[in-house]
Every structure is written in C-alpha cells, then in structure tokens.
Task: structure prediction
Amino acid sequence: MWHGLYRRWLPVEKWSSCRVEIDAIHDDCEGFRFWIRPHDETIGVLVVRFESPLAHFVSDEGDRIAPLQPAQPDMNFPHVFWTVEDSELLKLFHRQSCELHAAGNLVHYCFLSCSTCVDVISSAPPKLDEAWTHEIAG
Result:
C-alpha cells in the first residue's frame, strides 16, 4: 500500500465491516466509478462515483504487501473505506503535476477489497449509490 497514515472512513455504516470484492471499474465520459459487491449477497452492491478525480490507481491486493510507513495503528480488517494522511501517492501526484493542484485540498481515498485496492486522489468525496445487482444488470 502507499505509505501514509490510513484513517478509517465511515461514509456508509453497514458497509464498514464487510468483506467485499470490486466487480467492475469504469473510467469514461460518465466519470470514474466502480462497483463493490459484498460477500453477503443480501446487501446488494455499492456504486462508488467520482465525478472528477485527478488520479486513480488500481492494484491487486496481493501485490501490495510491503510494510507501511509509518507503522499503523491496528487497521482492523475487513474495512473498505479509508483516507490517507501524509500520503506518498499524493506527494508523488503533487511532484508530477508541478504543484498545480497544491491549493486544491486534495484527499487520497483508498478502498480495500479482498482482492483489489483502489486509490483515488480527488478534491471531492465520491457519491455512493446503493443498488441491487438486478438493477445494475438491467
């Protein structure tokens, strides 16, 4: 995972302690969005939508095994939603963009599933839409 201090974020309480998978990831004219499916099929799915993220990074959970710096307080998994303070990814973004967005109050959001990690840099939090699987498929 990217170095920084991971803080629990609770935008939707019932999703806070679920084991989940990322089912689909899209970045197109409708924005950046992804579908989170819990292992508990009675909950449905959650669609996470960022209207104008500045950067996103998707990786396999198994490829992010290095110890985090600084040492983290107990992260208590499973937990899906995180923000990252003093983020290595955000520092890299600012360096690569020549500090163009330094005054933009950017946040590093992190979503951790059982197999996929999604990191997003954005000045606004995502919109979270709960839906049932049949609603998305139809």
Q: What stands out?
A: The chain has a mean pLDDT of 89. The first helix runs from residue 88 to 96. The radius of gyration is 15 Å.
